[in-house]
Recover the amino acids of this structure.
């Protein structure tokens, strides 16, 4: 969340949110994220709309997002292994 807020700030959008206060408590809901629901149902997850789009905004603002980058790479790999995301382009 902190990286997302930094990306927003890099584009002049300031959101009054304390990530620690909003997200530090253990979730008490049984709700599953839409991406998890997609994986469990064999549907392609919305990786580009939820993750790589934010990466592009971060890069455009010159904001480092190491956590987002690592999570995105792992989710893409999981989706590729289950054939729910296009394979990587191989260069000769």
């Amino acid at each position: 969340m902190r990286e997302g807020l930094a990306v927003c700030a890099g584009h002049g959008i300031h959101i009054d949110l304390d990530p620690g206060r909003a997200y530090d408590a253990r979730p008490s809901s049984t709700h599953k994220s839409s991406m998890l629901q997609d994986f469990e149902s064999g549907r392609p997850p919305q990786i580009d709309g939820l993750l790589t789009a934010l990466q592009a905004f971060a890069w455009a603002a010159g904001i480092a997002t190491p956590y987002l980058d690592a999570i995105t790479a792992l989710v893409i790999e999981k989706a590729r292994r289950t054939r729910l995301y296009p394979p990587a382009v191989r260069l000769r």
Q: What stands out?
A: Residues 2-81 form a domain with the N-(1-d-carboxylethyl)-l-norvaline Dehydrogenase; domain 2 fold (CATH 1.10.1040.10). The chain has a mean pLDDT of 92.
